[in-house]
Each structure stands twice: as C-alpha cells, then as structure tokens.
Amino acid sequence: MKKTRFTEQQIITILQEAEAGMPVSELCRKHGVSDASFYIWRKKFGGMSETDLKKLRQLEEENRRLKHMYAELSIDHRILKDVVEKKL
After folding, report:
1. What is the rounded CA–CA span in Å between residue 53 and residue 43?
2. Can you give the pTM of this predicted structure?
3. Which of 8, 46, 53, 61 could covalently link to 42 via disulfide, CB atoms 3.0 to 4.6 Å apart?
C-alpha cells in the first residue's frame, strides 16, 4: 500500500479547517493535495477528532491481537484433534 505524505493527525487538521469554512479548492492548494484526495479523506475521517482516531487505533490493535490469539488456539485445537483421532 502506498504511504501518504500526511499523517492521520495532519489529515484531521486539514478536514477541521474545511469544516471551519475554508473553501476546499483553496485548502487543497494551500496543502498541496488534490481534490480527490481531500474527498477520500473526508469520507474516511470525516467528523473524527484526534481522540476518536486514537480510540480507533487502539481497537484495531486489540482486534489484531485477538485474531492472532484465535489463530493460535485454532491451530492448537486442530493439532490436538489430529492426535486424538490417531490414537483411536
């Protein structure tokens, strides 16, 4: 995936400037962003604050850990099931 030049906090700051009433075309020119990128960001991060973003990142990290735990337990379960079937 392509890495953007802007951090998520910078994107939220730009979106907040737009919400404050600055015209989108002027805002995009000021920050060197295309209109398409701005609207993609607004769709993804619209209405979020930095605290919401932190909570989102924490939830994504927790979700990643839980998926990893589930995968490990699933493998362990499968191994134990194979061992039991071989003994019978």
Report:
1. 14
2. 0.65
3. 46
